[in-house]
Amino acid sequence: MVTRDPLVVFVLLVLWKGYCIGENAFIQEEAIDHGENITLPCFPLNDERSGNDRRTNMDDIWLNHEIAMWVREGREDEQISRMSVHQDGSLSLTNVDRDDSGVYRCLVEDEIRMRIKLEVRAPPPALSNVTVVPSTVLALLLWEVTDTGGYPISHFSARYRLKEPILFSDHDTEEKSLHDYSWHWVVPEQIKPSVREIDVYQLRPNSSYVFEIWASNQLGAGEITQLETHTQNNEAEIELARHLLEGAETFDTRVWVAAVAVVMGTLVMLALGTCYLLYKECHIPNINLDEHEIMELVPNIILNPGFDDDGGVESHYERDENCNNRRAMHINNISTAQPYRI
């Protein structure tokens, strides 16, 4: 079906022309940090025309810089005071912020000469889906990251305090209550960028707390997210926590360091002793008999079990009552030669 409505045909032609112009326009990407100034050119830097032709064309166009118009998607009125167009058609932005990010188009006589995608890097925005799951004396803090601000997140930070101070008549209890009302950092103070949840300990049962959490990158701390929660009142959990956390505040970590040092020192001494014994065993000389002596000794042992390796078959002993100075000797496996009497 082909339409003959002139208005429809005109709109289609305009849309087709705008699509072709938008596709053929050069897209340039720029990035800048929050609070700095930047100038966006109206002509691409890779213009293929020769220097003279390009200079002549620009002189003809910029005799009146008012013919250059910059358009940004979703422009805000507050941005106009920080924008200015120069004689050559370039656009200057001062003290940029995250709201200045977007695609800028330079139009000359209704023709797009340049499209620039500007990214303003800034501290991270507020975290998303921040929730607190309270218990009796502890709480679980969870969060998600949707934007890093242009730079990788270096760490997270979180802190908490009582919503309202609880005053008591007792002076010591009053000081402790005021201490709890001040801000307390969640340990560790710099949470790893890969972490998305953390436990908060030593809270008061049945109390209202205020939590704050934010992300940081190399440009600084981001927007703070604040929320409130109320801890539960469970007697069983309170008693269990009292026994588990008893002495935690006064615990001296130097005791653990000393114990670990003693254990490691003992293991090192055992390892050195083992290495020394192995070294000594490897350096004990091996006693090897001469091959000729071994061959001569074997048949003598087989033929004469009474063979004496001192050099003779017969040995002289102290005379007995029969004046015998020799001992009995096996001739073979059956017969035994007894010493004769004198």
Automatic annotation (TrEMBL):
InterPro entries reported in the protein's UniProt record: FN3_dom, FN3_sf, Ig-like_dom, Ig-like_dom_sf, Ig-like_fold, Ig_sub
Top-rank lineage group of the source organism: Eukaryota
Ig-like domain sequence ranges: 6-117
Presence of the UniProt keyword RNA-binding in the record: no
Transmembrane region(s): 255-279
Record-annotated Fibronectin type-III domain positions: 123-236
CDD domains linked: FN3 (cd00063), Ig (cd00096)
Signal sequence bounds: 1-22
Keywords, comma-separated and alphabetical: Membrane, Signal, Transmembrane, Transmembrane helix
Protein name as annotated: Contactin-3
Organism expressing this protein natively: Frankliniella fusca
Organism classification: Eukaryota, Metazoa, Ecdysozoa, Arthropoda, Hexapoda
